[in-house]
Amino acid sequence: MKLLQATQLSHTFECELFSNVSLELNTHESIAIVGMSGSGKSTLLHILASLLQPNKGEVKILGKDVYKLKSSELATLKRNSLGLVFQSHYLFKGFSAYENLEVAKLLSQQSIDENLLAQLHIQETMQQKVTELSGGQQQRVSIARVLTKKPKLIFADEPTGNLDTQTAHEVMELFFEYTKKNDAGMLLVTHDTALANLCDKVYKLENKSLIQIK
Ligand SMILES: Nc1ncnc2c1ncn2[C@@H]1O[C@H](COP(=O)(O)OP(=O)(O)OP(=O)(O)O)[C@@H](O)[C@H]1O
Ligand SMILES: [Mg+2]
Q1: Please, which residues have CB less than 5 A from ligand 2, an ion?
Q2: Atom 18 (ligand 1): residue with closest C-alpha?
Q3: Domain of 47, in residue numbers
Q4: Does pTM surpass 0.90?
């Protein structure tokens, strides 16, 4: 099943970032987007994740044209089906790691998966305040929070940027396992070509176009 279909996207800020970008994501599939700093990867991810309306083009998520939805419908889609892992984690700072997961649990009526916490090596840190955690621990808590929602689509912008190579690979394996088990898919933006190559497909944003390189 098609989780995401983007057609003929173009976007311009001060100058044109890209045009005629089309992309599809299927169930169980992972796609990486690479490209130079400033090439527009994060902007494209925001557009694909329903957060920024492009100047041109259409984004369909689970068959719905996201920029034509009513704001209440879009909010429901975001809450129930989309998982966003961005470099700044948007964790609630005054709360403990566990309380952050509880928010996701309540919003989506799912349960907190102890297994997931073990795989991310964050069981021990669950009672600590977010501000007392290292950058990499915060990143792993934010990944746990996103997966607790059981989203169909994961949008991740450098989700392992604060992690050592081994932990980064473990986290990628966890994402792959998650997408297989939950009939989900993942779109990953990264600078790390080794991590990108773990994905089923790799696209490069270059010269204002998106080209498939794997
Ligand atoms: N909200 C905005 N308003 C104006 N210009 C923006 C905005 N967001 C991004 N840009 C510009 O668009 C270009 C692409 O930015 P973007 O963040 O998408 O790049 P990127 O490929 O993700 O880079 P990096 O690898 O460094 O994260 C940059 O020149 C940036 O300054
Ligand atoms: Mg970026």
Answers
A1: 42
A2: 40
A3: 2-212
A4: yes
